[in-house]
């Protein structure tokens, strides 16, 4: 369920203050944040955010297409290594079949 339009998008206040200060000063620094739940607002466009994924900070350059999404969407927390194929399964079974039984 989405957030009420009356309330507006949620952005961590400390993060928004940093971004607005950088916009006033014309700075372009990387901003570290743990706030994955913050919504990307138009003031953030053009800045690089280092979003924490639970292990490390992932640099995310904010573009216009990202407005309205959450910061956490752009810093994946899990590493997908792909699905196994039939050849991979056969290779895993073959060495085990050749091993001697009994262990002695």
In a few lines, what is going on in this structure?
The protein is α+β, with helices and mostly antiparallel strands and 104 residues long. The protein has helices at residues 13-25, 86-98, and strands at residues 30-33, 48-52, 57-61.
What does this protein look like?
- It is built from two helices and three strands; from the N terminus they run αβββα.
- The chain has helices at residues 13-25, 86-98; strands at residues 30-33, 48-52, 57-61.
- It has a three-stranded mixed β-sheet, covered by helices on one side.
What is the helix content? 25-40%
Largest sheet: 3 strands, mixed
Report the mean per-residue pLDDT as an integer.
89
Strand order of the largest sheet: 1-2-3
- What structural class results from the helix and strand content? alpha+beta
Count the DSSP helices.
2
């Amino acid at each position: 369920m989405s957030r009420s339009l009356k309330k507006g998008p949620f952005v961590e206040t400390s993060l928004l203050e940093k971004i607005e200060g950088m916009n006033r000063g014309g700075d372009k620094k990387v901003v570290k944040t743990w706030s994955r739940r913050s919504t990307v607002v138009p003031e953030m466009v053009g800045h690089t955010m280092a979003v924490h994924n639970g292990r490390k900070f992932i640099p995310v350059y904010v573009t216009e297409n990202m407005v309205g999404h959450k910061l956490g969407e752009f810093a994946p927390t899990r590493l997908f290594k792909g699905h196994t194929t039939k050849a991979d399964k056969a290779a895993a079974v073959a060495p085990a079949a050749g091993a001697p039984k009994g262990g002695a």
